[in-house]
Amino acid sequence: MRLRRLAETVSATTLSLALLLAPAAAQETASELGIPLPEQPALVIVKRDAEPQELDIPAPAEVTLDLRPSAGPQSADAAETREMVTGALSTRPDNSAAELELDLPEPEMPPVDPALVKPVEAAPQPQLARPAQIDLPPLPDVAVTMPPGLELSGRIAAQAEIAAALPRLSARERADIVAAYAANENRPFWIDGKELGAAGKQIVAQLGRAGDDGLRAGDYLLPIFEGSDKDSLAAADIRLSALAVLYARDARGGRIDPRRLSKLITPKLELPSATEVLSELAGAADAGAVLAAYNPRHTGYQHLKAKLAELRAHKPETPVARIPAGPALKVGMRDERVPLIRARLGLGSSEEPVYDRSTALALADFQKQAGLRADGVLSDQTVAALAMPRSTRLESDIIAQMERWRWLPSDLGENRIVVNIPEYKMRVMHGDKLAYESRVIVGKPESATPVFSHRMEHVVVNPSWYVPPSILKKEFLPGLANDPNYAARRGYVVTRGKNGSISVRQPPGERNALGWIKFMFPNDHAVYLHDTPNRGLFGAGKRAFSHGCVRVENPFALADQVLGPEWTSERLKRLIGSGERTIKLPQPLPIHLVYETIVVNEAGAVTTFDDIYGFHRLVRNALEQRS
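That's the L,D-transpeptidase family protein sequence above. Prediction below.
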């Protein structure tokens, strides 16, 4: 028994020393390795006589252990052990484990050698450096502002399609306007706050001056809008964009479609898109000037514009007496309106109300100036024209001529050829300077010379003439039907195709309808400039004799102008009589076949030419009807 207690005492002492020395050993090791260890908790020894914490644990079942030895002899030590060991076995409620609680006396511990005990020092706690005091400047006030016009974006998006719907704008143009606003985040282009900005005011001012260019200011009126009404502001901005697009297109010739007037009027209009117009106006320093620039800048147009302003400044205030309607008057007829007609034409009074020859001749002159058929017959159209002041009629004529200027390209070309059909003249222009001028022969009224622009590309010497389909149908086919030698006797070569088609060609020669030279600019009308064997026709005052092409009085002088110094007229003439020869121009030359019945010079003098095809009357009537 004593040996057992001694062993227990030594074991307990060894365990205590190990627990006391383990932290110190660990601290030394960590110090050597440079690793800080956390502070060790203090060792707390609970005394036996301390009050145990009361836990609400169900009482374990009591178990009585019978420690009595089995039958047989027992030693004295065994008997002593049996007498000393008593207790009870307690079990957990779930019976998973059991603890044996023994009533053992506290062992007697020997004194501990102080040299073996090393005091446990608490590990020093790292001291966190306190941040330095930083004085921060006060933050500025942040002002959040909306982009200009963003407050109208929702209303613009909702009204864009409706507000852009002008009658004379196509669906494509309206869609382009809507798309332009969408690209601008549906912000206004022209409204600034509650009123028009600078660009908007410039555009409105130019629209108000539309009449100066022969346009109708009433076509571009901006509706009145209320500055306090955001819906009204949004609609006004969109409508102003649509009006600006319409004005730009009208200024470039979009008021009427010339191809609907005649199949022989085929200019290529340069109508700007809505996207182009709005882009140029929105980024312009002077939006009004940009909008005005869509009108022609050509000198001839500017002279007409100046004359229009002059006529309107001196317009008579009193209207001309109206001539009553009635039957058409011809020479020899009696009518009570004859005195009024003579007074209107500036003729003296007559004793009898007879429509005589002098009255008819004066009326024919008036009809010519008015663009009417100059037959001297008092028709309903003539009565209507007589009811208008002369200045008003001239205004309409000038406006119609200004409209035809809009059909020309904005860039006519620095060097160019211009053929004025009603004037029977051809000019070679270098800028605004006249380089060469020649009389020409144009098409007859039944085979009119077309109106268009193109580029001359080459010249043909000793050309063959292929009879156009119109002449072939009207002249040659009936002649060949009656006489198989009809073409051969006239010097023409007939070629029959495998499909039964017939072509008639006139070989080069002195009698060739094209003469010795022709100037080519491929076009849909198959017309061009050329020489002619009938040069005596150039002496006539009115020279509408051709089948549509333009005959030039001195074609070799024209060749000098277009071919350059390498091909002089003398060199070209040495080629006459040889085979067909094609010579390209050094560079393509713009050529314009125009129809100017009214020309105003720098001094403001007006010159009128016969409306030989009625094209002028078609344009003027179309504008008046649209108005």
